[in-house]
Amino acid sequence: MTTQPSRDLETFPNPTPERDYTVRFVIPEFTCLCPKTGQPDFATFYIDYIPGTTCVELKSLKLYMWSFRDEGAFHEAVTNRITDDLVTAIVPRFLRVTGRFNVRGGIYTDVTTEHRAEGWQPAAPVQLPPRE
After folding, report:
1. Structural domain includes residue 94
2. Is residue 93 situated within a structural domain?
């Protein structure tokens, strides 16, 4: 196999930078290692962001997420690292990263982080009439 895990997040220009829109990724096959036991941890990651001037390229995101497979990481630390790396790479207007980790010791763990660009305010939500 020629594809290898990588921490390089590639980007491309936002095709519609004048509009706020949400990009959502669902990554159901995330794995890392428990830093205490070395056993595998499994999670689904949800990444929602409103792009600034750039977007993250999907294959590089896949290889980036894969790069944690052999690394020991606490759930809180890995979720915050992913957030920091994405903010550095794409400088989004808004970013939310949620890691939903499978059960470990009878406990499920969800970790959610958020980033908002300085001065960015979301548009007011549009209230649609109820369906008749």
Report:
1. yes
2. yes
CB-CB contact of 73 with 57 (8 Å) = no
Distances (CA, A) of 18 to 41, 50, 86, 93: 39, 11, 21, 12
56 annotated as a binding-site residue: yes
Gap between the Cα atoms of 72 and 126, Å rounded: 43
87 labelled ligand-binding: no
Q: Does some domain include residue 67?
A: yes
Q: Which range of residues forms the domain containing residue 42?
A: 11-116
| DSSP-derived secondary structure letter, 15 | S
Each of the 132 residues of the chain gets a pLDDT tens digit; together they read 558 999 999 999 999 999 999 999 999 999 999 999 999 999 999 999 999 999 999 999 999 999 999 999 999 999 999 999 999 999 999 999 999 999 988 999 999 999 999 999 888 889 999 988
Residue 115 marked as a ligand binder = no
State residue 104's pLDDT score: 86
- Identify the CATH number of the domain in which residue 109 sits: 3.30.1130.10
What is the number of structural domains in the chain? Answer: 1
Report the catalytic residues.
34, 41
Could you tell me if residue 36 is inside a domain?
yes
